[in-house]
Every structure is written in structure tokens, then in C-alpha cells.
Specification:
By secondary structure, the chain is mainly alpha-helical. Helices cover 88% and strands 0% of the residues. It has helices spanning 2-28, 34-58, 61-75, 81-112.
Length: 113
């Protein structure tokens, strides 16, 4: 019981309160790297939502621990993990979209020809 309470408080403080504060700070102040910080925190909140939904749906304790570790890594500004993961996902996603677009164009040309 006490362990679950401590885990909840750690999760609340480091995975919700701190990122929320840093997101507000990023939005309030103009930085030289505003775009990077904005993208980083936006990606954090998207991943927070996805991982929370997965945890809710699956409901395993292991998933909760995995979510805490993953979001903790994404929230640490020194690691800049969220920008790196976003760049990786963005590059692969855009490449797949380009490939799909090219294949759809060629299919359309073949059908029209």
C-alpha cells in the first residue's frame, strides 16, 4: 500500500507536474531554441497520452513501470531523448508517407492509362 502511494507521488511529481511546469515555461519565455523545446514538450505530451492509454487498456503493472521509465527519460532535458525519438519517428513516418504517395500516384497513372 505504501509502495503504491510512493510510486503514485513520484509519478505525479516527475511525470506530470515537472513536465507541465517546463511546458508552461517554454511557452511563456522566448528562447533561442523555442522550436526545439516546443517540439520536445509536445512530443512528450503525445507520448504521455499514448502510453497512458496503453497502460489503461492493458492494465499490467509492468506496463506502468515501463511507462514511468520511458516518460522519465523523455522528460529529462539533458538527455534530449524526446527530440531524438521525434526525429526518428518523423523521418521514418515521412519516408513511408512519401513511398505510399509515390505508389498511389503510379497506380493512378496505370489505371488512367
Amino acid at each position: 500500500m505504501l509502495g503504491a502511494l510512493v510510486l503514485f507521488l513520484v509519478e505525479l511529481l516527475f511525470l506530470v507536474v515537472y513536465p507541465f511546469y517546463m511546458t508552461l515555461r517554454t511557452l511563456e519565455k522566448s528562447h533561442n531554441n523555442f522550436g526545439e523545446l516546443y517540439t520536445s514538450w509536445t512530443f512528450y505530451w503525445v507520448m504521455f497520452s499514448i502510453l497512458s492509454a496503453v497502460e489503461w487498456y492493458v492494465g499490467f503493472y509492468f506496463i506502468r513501470l515501463l511507462r514511468i521509465v520511458a516518460l522519465g527519460v523523455l522528460a529529462l532535458p539533458k538527455l534530449d531523448a524526446s527530440s531524438k525519438v521525434f526525429a526518428l519517428v518523423n523521418e521514418q513516418g515521412l519516408a513511408k508517407i512519401r513511398d505510399l504517395s509515390a505508389s498511389l500516384k503510379s497506380m493512378a497513372k496505370d489505371k488512367l492509362a
